TrEMBL record:
This is Uncharacterized protein. It comes from Georhizobium profundi.
Amino acid sequence: MGRYRKLPVEIEAVQWFKPGDHPKVKSGAGPATWPDGSIKVAGADCGFIETLEGGHIVTPGDWIIQGVNGEFYPCKPDIFAKTYEPVEPSHV
């Protein structure tokens, strides 16, 4: 098996904690919706996001990443911390 390194690509991301933190994360939609319209996982208010691979539950602390083709997807905080680092804004 060959070894590969991820290309250094800058992304935009925001950490999600509650409904309303990101316009692509919906509340009251998806397979885990409770009768009152909320989405809960282990008692926490959660969200739902449509991705290229289908819908995903978003839990508090997840990062919402905009990919290189404009797509959005969630990323768990531990994976985000191992994969990304802050970038200083460029002054071009």
